[in-house]
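Session log. Operator J.P. requested a structure for one protein chain; no other inputs attached. Running the standard single-chain path with token output.
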Amino acid sequence: MSQKEINPTMERPILSVPGVPLFIGFLIAIAISIYLFVSGGGAAYFATAAVLVGLGVIGMGGFYSIQPNEAVAILLFGAYQGTDRATGLRWVWPWLTRKKISMRVRNVTSDKLKVNDKDGNPIEIAANVVWRVQDSAQALFDVDDYERFSRIEIDTALRDIAAHYAYDHAAEGELTLRGHAEEVATLLGERLNQRLAVGGMRVDEARISHLAYATEIAGAMLKRQQAQAILAARQLIVMGAVGMVESALEQLSARGVVTLDEERKAQMVSNLLVVLCADREAQPVVNTGTLY
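Structure written below.
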């Protein structure tokens, strides 16, 4: 079974005639018919003039123009005959129906959708999609309104992506919407191409243009992120402070500046850690007496 038999509306080319020579020819025919009418040469002249006028008027109905990145689907009494993509002035038989469609690249930004992510958290998400019509016949005849169809499918694919991935803080190795934007965009583009293929459309690029927690939980999630940031910062500060204390003790011991027993070392470590890890500036206390 051929591909044409599987999908009879798959785009196929059709031959059309360059319109400029025919346009000039029809103008000449009309001019000749006017001359024959005016000259008054008898019944034969009038009959010839009438035929030329009829052919000129009917023939003029077969002209159409195509701009770059446009296509015209040709139909004969409702049956698809083919698609003309040749630019300029073209001509086909006047009784053929012509449907024009744009093949240009289109940029669509979806509405902000409120959905639940994989963890059940309500989030707001939107996408920017760059797409174009690839098969004019499928776009015109396989879907009712290909532009409206594309918008619905973009929203559907976006909801599906958001429901299968967490906004953030997923298990190790799992994708997240916020942390793996490139991978999520690639998946979105692949799913959109699968969904829009039935309408003869192709996605060139898909990107997440808006991603945020829903209003009702945004405050709580902000506090959670702040707490996580504070904890991460504290961990880094503690690691640095331990390294500094260790280095200080090693240098004091190596240079023989002072000899400390284990109790004094513990006290010194405690004091240094307090100073280094405190979120405020420490107030120094100067000891003017003896060490012990």
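Operator note: The helical segments are 3-6, 19-39, 43-60, 136-141, 146-164, 181-196, 215-255, 262-277.
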